């Protein structure tokens, strides 16, 4: 419990720096917390970890005061009922290495400014109700190239051609309404390991695709992909999972 008569560093879900005694972590999950994210969370300037996870009664928008948390490295607001848009102000949190907004009721488009987070290792926007195109800027991440998870939304349009220069380790764009050519994701000289493009409207010639030798898992089922399975796929040394079902492949 959070008793104001006790040292806040002893409170449940709160962690403090052992030297400064400043709160650097607030992690609340699988509880009965209800209402909106309190604005006062922005008054913790030394916070490095903020997590609200598996809180089905947490609602409302993502709190704007979070933009004040300039030391924040880990932000997870997932498995809740928060709604509204993915806020552009998140791009101000330049120290973020992990951003997880999955399993919510977020709507609207994805802000292109998220590509300006220079230290991001993983971006989870999956399992929301996001619409619009994947930002072209997601093929121009500044600094670290994050693992990208955008599945189970309502994203449409084509995969940005800028992805041709991005070397994602993991990318999941499955269960959207994406169309056109996805071959820009691949390339012999890339180090991509896991790709899931399943259940979209993608249409390209698989025969002409050159795959990275690092590929471990490839799922492109339920699209309109043409051509035949390249011999190169059978020669990938680390491939453990392959699903090309429900396409227009021949041969």
TrEMBL record:
It is found in: Membrane; Secreted, Cell wall. One of its GO terms (cellular component) is membrane. SUPFAM superfamilies: L domain-like (SSF52058). Its main location: membrane. Keywords: Cell wall, Leucine-rich repeat, Membrane, Repeat, Secreted, Signal. The keyword Ligase does not apply. Gene3D superfamilies: Ribonuclease Inhibitor (3.80.10.10). Pfam families: LRR_1, LRR_8. It comes from the Eukaryota. PROSITE patterns: LRR (PS51450). Belongs to the polygalacturonase-inhibiting protein family. This is Polygalacturonase inhibitor protein.
């Amino acid at each position: 419990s959070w008793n104001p008569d006790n040292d806040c560093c002893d409170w449940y879900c709160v962690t403090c720096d052992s030297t400064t005694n400043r709160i650097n972590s607030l992690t609340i999950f699988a509880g009965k917390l209800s209402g909106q994210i309190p604005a006062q969370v922005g008054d913790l300037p030394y916070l490095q970890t903020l997590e609200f996870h598996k809180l089905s009664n947490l609602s409302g928008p993502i709190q704007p005061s979070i933009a004040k948390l300039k030391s924040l490295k880990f932000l997870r607001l997932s498995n809740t009922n928060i709604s509204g848009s993915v806020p552009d102000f998140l791009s101000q949190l330049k120290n973020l290495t992990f951003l997880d907004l999955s399993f919510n009721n977020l709507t609207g488009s994805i802000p292109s400014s998220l590509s300006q987070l220079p230290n991001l290792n993983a971006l989870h926007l999956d399992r929301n109700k996001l619409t619009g195109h994947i930002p072209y800027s997601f093929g121009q991440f500044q600094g670290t190239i994050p693992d990208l998870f955008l599945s189970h939304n309502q994203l449409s349009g084509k995969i940005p051609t800028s992805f041709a220069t991005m070397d994602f380790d993991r990318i999941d764009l499955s269960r959207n309404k994406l169309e056109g050519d996805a071959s820009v994701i691949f390339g012999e000289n890339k180090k991509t390991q896991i790709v899931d493009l399943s259940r979209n409207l993608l249409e390209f010639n698989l025969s002409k695709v050159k795959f990275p030798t690092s590929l471990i898992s490839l799922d492109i089922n339920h699209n309109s992909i043409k051509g035949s399975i390249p011999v190169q796929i059978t020669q990938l040394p680390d491939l453990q999972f392959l699903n090309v079902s429900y396409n227009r492949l021949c041969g």
